[in-house]
Amino acid sequence: MSARDVIHNLRELAARTSNAGGAQRVAWGPVWREARAWLDGTVGELGLGAAADAAGNRWITLPGDSPRTVVIGGHLDSVPNGGWLDGPLGVLTGLEALRRYRDKPRPVTLAVADFADEEGARFSRSLLGSSGASGSLIPDTARHLVDRDGVRLVDALAENGIDLERMPEAREALLARDPRAYLELHIEQGPVLESMDKPAGVVIGAYGVERHVLRFTGQAAHSGSTPIAMRRDAFLAAAEAALAFREIARRHSTPEVGMVCTVGQVAVEPGIVTAVPGVCEISLDQRAIAPDILARALADAREAANRAARNNGVSVEWRHVWRIEPSRFDPRLVELCAEAAREVTGHAPRLPSGPLHDAVEMNRLMPAVMMFASSSRGLSHCREEDTPEPQLEQAIEAFLRLVDRTVALVAAE
Ligand SMILES: [Zn+2]
After folding, report:
1. Check: CATH 3.30.70.360 for 208-324?
2. What pLDDT digit, counting tens, does each position of 255-310 carry?
3. Which pTM value belongs to this model?
């Protein structure tokens, strides 16, 4: 088995769990269960077995001389009409690591985790399984969730033998494993590595997120009878603010430390062609890897929104939606990851992750790092998601070197 075999397995899983629209391994559903059953078969061929934890994650363990454990993670679940690499790349490369260590001396234990419901595609709660395992999941915040068809999360979980209330118990079970390092290979899902013509990158951490809804309130009025100077146009205030947010992101971005601001939603009232908008609501999603930059960018955005409101004679109210702290991966593991990437590909570009990953949850419990494989055209969460095979092979090989280096590091602890 080699990187090529990992790719072969990825293609086989995709063939079994995709249709013309793409991958359909949505967590807690029948296709996802089929994917896991296929994984069980593959694990069985290695002479190993998979066991579930209280949060619905599956663990494949290869015991070593010491119980100290290097954990390798990923997720088999996908979004509807998803791609073939987002998630399974981590799990199946982890399995290849186990195969390589199966027949040789192992100073430490290795474990592969297939985290449940990383995507949150059905119930809008990402990182569900890994947050159960890290202990950050608060059942109260998920108990009310329903999918588009009105099915409750708790019932979908029960169908899979999982009790939401008991999911956080997975933390104790994980800590009992004596976990010392967490490694994850994932596709970048963005265009940065491809634009640099690099097959693999070292992930230094994940962006924190500040998410708000801003409601601008002016006065609806007739579009023909109201002179421009006498309008209180809520949309124009929102538009002025949105342009200012772009400048804020530019101002706080450096080549090493990116920062992004996105206005992804806009709704105007009354929303007819003959009326000046009296109300305009926009979303603001701000992301940065440095906590101080995220905080400054938020303060700047408040100031800019107030200015835009004043300029247009309207008022603005902020509603907080969601936030998560930026996370920084372990400096020692980041170095090992860079060494491994450089050894195989000749380069070790460092970049933050814009999307969240299970590694962010695991980073709460143990030193963690991720490696990214480049994404063709930066596309993901769609059937076009791809990485050219030569680049994918290099990334897999580089990651397996990272596993070797981490095993040596943990053995020496
Ligand atoms: Zn993923």
Report:
1. yes
2. 667 899 999 999 999 999 999 999 999 999 999 999 999 999 999 999 999 999 99
3. 0.89
Strand pairing report for 179-187 and 368-373: parallel
Q: How far is the CA of 380 from the centre of ligand 1 (A)?
A: 9
Protein residues within 5 Å, CB atom, of ion ligand 1: 86-87
Cα of 85 to ligand 1 centre, how many Å?
A: 8
What does the block give as tokens for 221? 């009025």
pLDDT tens per residue, range 304-347: 999 999 999 999 999 998 888 999 999 999 999 999 999 999 99
Phi, then psi, of 363 in degrees rounded to 5: -60, -20
> Which is nearest to 83 in space by CA: 373, 396, 370, 341?
373
Positions in the chain whose pLDDT score sits under 70: 1, 255-256
Cα 118 to ligand 1 centre (Å): 7
Q: What is the pLDDT of residue 321?
A: 85
* Single-letter amino acid code for the residue at 237: A
End-to-end Cα, the chain, rounded Å: 30
Q: What's the CATH number for 3-206+326-411? A: 3.40.630.10
Residue range(s) in the chain whose domain bears CATH number 3.40.630.10: 3-206+326-411
In contact, 205 and 364? CB cutoff 8 Å: no
- Whether 199 and 395 have beta carbons less than 8 Å apart is answered as yes
Residues 34/36/41/43 CA torsion (nearest 10 deg):
170
